[in-house]
Specification:
Helix 4 runs parallel beside helix 5 (186-197). The protein is globular and about 60 Å long. It is of the alpha/beta class and 349 residues long. The chain folds into 2 domains: 2-159 and 296-348, Quinone Oxidoreductase, Chain A, domain 1; 161-292, NAD(P)-binding Rossmann-like Domain (Rossmann fold, 3-Layer(aba) Sandwich). It has helices spanning 42-48, 98-101, 151-154, 160-170, 186-197, 212-218, 229-234, 253-256, 281-284, 298-311, 325-333, and strands at 2-9, 16-23, 30-40, 65-72, 84-87, 90-92, 113-114, 134-138, 143-144, 178-182, 201-206, 222-225, 239-244, 259-267, 289-292, 317-321, 340-344. Bound molecules: zinc ion (2 copies). One zinc ion binds at residues 41, 43, 63, 89, 159.
């Protein structure tokens, strides 16, 4: 076991503070990683502050991890010491069910093991995330980071990136499709980039006129101000896909009306009851589809990194010192970050 430094929340109100803990000895298929960068996801805040009522304290958040391999177990075949690698939202799964067999570990029948606030399947010890200087992960749940990617800006690809890439790819977005991206935070700005890279005509839906110029800079062809009834009416039956990144309850009905026949509304940000309720007419009358998608499997997580290297896509980031994490959380709650904080783990030493 090796001692690592990190930052943990110890209660709902504690905020994040320095915390030392141990990482396990390498199992035969384990990779030991010295963490260089870790992105800061909204989910981290939800767990640190127990918003979902299922935090096990102490919690060390962080699931957008980039680092270098410093040791490998005897059976590791895909990674060597010195290689740059990434770890995302999960660190294990049953590896045997139908979903795992298809490389869809995020949909594991037994439930994936989350990178933090979970329990290791073998020793039952808590999992601790990437706000730390090292982590030990089974090689199946580690991905290669292409040399051409800026490693800090690649960190958010492990959650924000794969979450938006996976459904666009899975549902077959292709050149000429009309894709609407709803919301432009960490997820939405990546959704705009991916939809564009896949050849779609991209529209950003936002409540804020202030985001219009920024949306175009990110690659959106059009912007619809969702609070303007005239603009929403003009968008009726236009879209093949809507990628909905809004993380709080919101009325889906006006958005469903903007879908063409057979159009699809994909939820990736909201994990709560949908309110207000949906009128089924919006689905039935135009054979529309409402669906959702959770991160991506390990093969697809590798694919998104390779896709980003090929298309020169990275996340827009603001570098953060570890000691400023609590301030960063406050700013994120105000929506004051373009578009992801990434912790420089050198600042932890
Ligand atoms: Zn995340
Ligand atoms: Zn499984």
């Amino acid at each position: 076991m090796s001692e690592v430094k990190g930052y943990a929340a110890t209660s709902e109100l504690s905020g994040l503070a320095p915390f030392s803990f141990r990482r396990r000895e390498l199992r035969p298929d384990d990779v030991s990683i010295e963490i260089e960068y870790c992105g800061v996801c909204h989910t981290d805040i939800h767990f640190a502050e127990n918003d979902w009522g299922r935090t096990n304290y102490p919690v060390v958040p962080g699931h957008e991890i980039i680092g270098k391999v410093v040791a490998v177990g005897n059976d590791v075949s895909q990674f060597t010491v010195g290689q740059r690698v990434g770890v995302g939202c999960m660190v294990d799964s049953c590896r045997q069910c139908a979903s795992c067999g298809q490389g869809l570990e995020q949909y594991c029948r037994e439930g994936m093991t989350p990178t933090y606030n979970g329990r290791d399947r073998h020793d039952q010890l808590p999992t601790f995330g990437g706000y730390s200087d090292g982590i030990v992960v089974a090689e199946r749940f580690v991905v290669r980071v292409p040399d051409s990617l800026d490693p800090a800006a690649a960190a958010p690809l492990l959650c924000a990136g794969i979450t938006t890439y996976s459904p666009l790819k899975h549902y077959g977005v292709k050149p000429g499709d009309k894709v609407g991206v709803i919301g432009m935070g960490g997820l939405g700005h990546m959704g705009v980039k991916f939809a564009r890279a896949l050849g779609a005509e991209v529209t950003l839906f936002t409540r804020s006129r202030a985001k219009e110029a920024e949306a175009r800079k990110q690659g959106a062809d059009h912007v619809v101000i969702s609070t303007d009834p005239d603009q929403m009416a003009a968008a009726r039956e236009q879209f093949d896909f809507l990628l909905d990144t809004i993380p709080v309850p919101h009325d889906l009905n006006p958005y469903l009306d903007t879908l063409a026949v057979d159009g699809m509304h994909i939820l990736v940000g909201l994990i709560e009851p949908i309110e207000p309720t949906i009128h089924s007419r919006a689905l039935i009358a135009k054979r529309r589809i409402l669906t959702g998608s959770l991160i991506g499997g390990m093969p697809e997580t590798q694919e998104v990194l390779d896709f980003c290297a090929e298309h020169n896509i990275t996340c827009d980031i603001e570098m953060l010192d570890m000691a400023d994490i609590n301030k960063a959380y406050e700013r994120m709650k105000q929506g004051d970050v373009k578009y992801r904080f990434v912790i420089d783990m050198k600042t932890l030493k």
